[in-house]
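ok, trying the design again with the full structure, not the truncated one.
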């Protein structure tokens, strides 16, 4: 069983060392801390994962940091959810690939021109 805490709504300047020092000042222990960063810019995405050694430590971290104020914002802390499995994309998630293609030159009613197309043809 995993004892991972999701810590969110962090300012972008927060590092794993900052979180480690916060935990140490509260006499809490973490096995690992991972601040999630944008791979291109290396800027923090504003959340981190803290691996606690056991259930009790995980609950203590959540109780201490959930809704804790930091720079005018409230931190969020809760038990991390396992990642969703990545499978084939659902039709709604497929973007343009999920759209049916129409034949060129055909409008919504099998060849009937819209009012806009008729006016455009007059101008051209």
């Amino acid at each position: 069983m995993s004892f991972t805490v999701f810590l969110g709504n962090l300012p972008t300047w927060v590092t794993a060392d900052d979180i480690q020092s916060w935990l140490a000042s509260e006499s809490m222990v973490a096995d690992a801390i991972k601040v999630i960063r944008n791979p291109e810019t290396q800027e923090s995405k504003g959340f981190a994962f803290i691996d606690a050694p056991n259930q009790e430590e995980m609950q203590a971290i959540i109780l201490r940091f959930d809704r804790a104020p930091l720079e005018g914002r409230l931190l969020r802390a809760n038990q991390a959810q396992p990642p969703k499995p990545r499978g084939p994309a659902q039709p709604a998630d497929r973007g343009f690939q999920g759209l049916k293609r129409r034949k060129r030159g055909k409008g919504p009613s099998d060849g009937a021109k819209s009012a806009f197309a008729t006016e455009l043809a007059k101008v051209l």
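Keeping the full-length input from now on. The two ends are 70 Å apart (CA to CA).
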